[in-house]
Amino acid sequence: MDQFADIERTLIAKRDEVTVRLARIKKNLTAGRSADSQEQAQELENAEVVDALGNEARIELSKIAKALDQIKNGAYGTCADCGEEIPMARLEAYPFADRCIRCATAEEARRRR
Ligand SMILES: [Zn+2]
Q: DSSP character for 78?
C-alpha cells in the first residue's frame, strides 16, 4: 500500500539493522571458550546478557516481519482489538503498533494489574 511506503522502508531498514545486530550477538555467543575457570564464569555471565539481547532482537524481528506482512495483505494500520484505524502519526512513531492508543493504554493497564 502506497500510504505505508515510507513506513515499509523504515521497517525494512530496521530489519536489516536488527539482523546484523543479531548476527553479531550470535557470533559473540559462540566465541571461543577459555580454559581458565574464572574467565569461564565471566563468559557465562556475558553469554546470559548476550542471550537476553538476542531474544530482544528476535522479538523485534518477529514484530517487523508481522508489520511487513500486514502491509502486504492490507491489514496494517488497523487496531487488533477494536478494528479502528490506527492514526498515521502513531504508526510513524511506532511502526510495530498493532493497537490504537486507547486499546494499547487499556492493555498496559491490564498488564500492570
Ligand atoms: Zn483499538
A: B
